[in-house]
């Protein structure tokens, strides 16, 4: 059995980021940019007004001006103002030829087509957005490696970009194994349990913006499992199996993986929950055999799967580690790293009740996993521990 650190190191040694793809900007939110983007146009594409008011020549601002026309946002034609003239103008509209300044409409008096300004603070160029002031054609608009957050998406759309080169999100297959599984909403027959692993995993993956998720169910049968696993490997970048990785007579994941040509990187980690965790690769594809207990599945997801799928998409791990003081004494046996469902607040952390791996009730309340090292046994109140803050 290997340690948690060895397991994490082995996984990261086997990850190759996915090849960049070109996608619609509208679908690019949450992706990492894979190539620099240069502006194709000056933006704004023309000098434009930032206020509703009057376009003037600044040199004329002390005199009465004659109103000669109007510029509205979206107008396709322009006008020219001469000395002593002004034009009505609205926010976003192009400045008329000859104008260099805009006066807000609240700061003028208008009588018989004549305008007088009452704006002592007026300056040359006030309320004008210069052509190219956001970005000039040819300038670097965004560097590769940037996360395309909502503002980045809006910025790129605003400079006329509609397609971007990004690191894709991985396609994921989830295979739940077990003859005992019943779908929520149906009646539980004797011996059945409700299938929850595909629900928790899909929810966690969707939270990361991953939407290409295929879910398969496989009976406890080697031939069926091999067939499903083969299909899943062919159609996805990452395969998550749940259940069937332990030593029982009906645990076929290890054998199916081997017969499908998956190279075993490790099986079993010195940890609780999730001791029988399996990790293998086939070509560049990652295959995780997550121990079937619902809490083991999620604990292994946050420790191993999430950092891996982030790396595939060139992202950094979103599970942040902090140090926190224990609020109550806690004891465990030496030998395994324990990940406890906990509540973290203001530098203090409390292990929740119901830590058993078949239970999710405490996980549903937890905002962190408390990491207790292999050799640690008796922890005292105020001991400082490493805590993994879970994504919302
Ligand atoms: N003799 C030993 N027995 C077990 C060991 C061991 O070392 N020696 N390890 C135990 C540990 S720790 C774990 S964890 C489990 C993992 O076993 P499997 O991965 O083979 O999982 P299953 O036996 O298929 O299922 C375990 C448990 O989880 C329930 N389950 C499975 N899939 C789902 C699902 N999709 N939704 C909800 N619940 C699910 C299943 O009914 C079982 O109760 O092995 C121990 N045994
Ligand atoms: O590792 Mo198992 O998840 O302890 O029950």
Automatic annotation (TrEMBL):
GO molecular function: metal ion binding; molybdopterin molybdotransferase activity
Keywords, comma-separated and alphabetical: Magnesium, Metal-binding, Molybdenum, Molybdenum cofactor biosynthesis, Transferase
Pathway as given in its UniProt record: Cofactor biosynthesis; molybdopterin biosynthesis
Entry's EC annotation: 2.10.1.1
Residues annotated as domain MoaB/Mog: 173-311
Residues forming coiled coils: none
Entries under InterPro entries matching the protein: MoaB/Mog-like_dom_sf, MoaB/Mog_dom, MoeA-like, MoeA_C_domain_IV, MoeA_C_domain_IV_sf, MoeA_linker/N, MoeA_linker/N_sf
Major enzyme class: transferase
Cofactor dependency: Mg(2+)
Function comment: Catalyzes the insertion of molybdate into adenylated molybdopterin with the concomitant release of AMP.
Name this protein carries in UniProt: Molybdopterin molybdenumtransferase
Organism of derivation: Pedobacter kyonggii
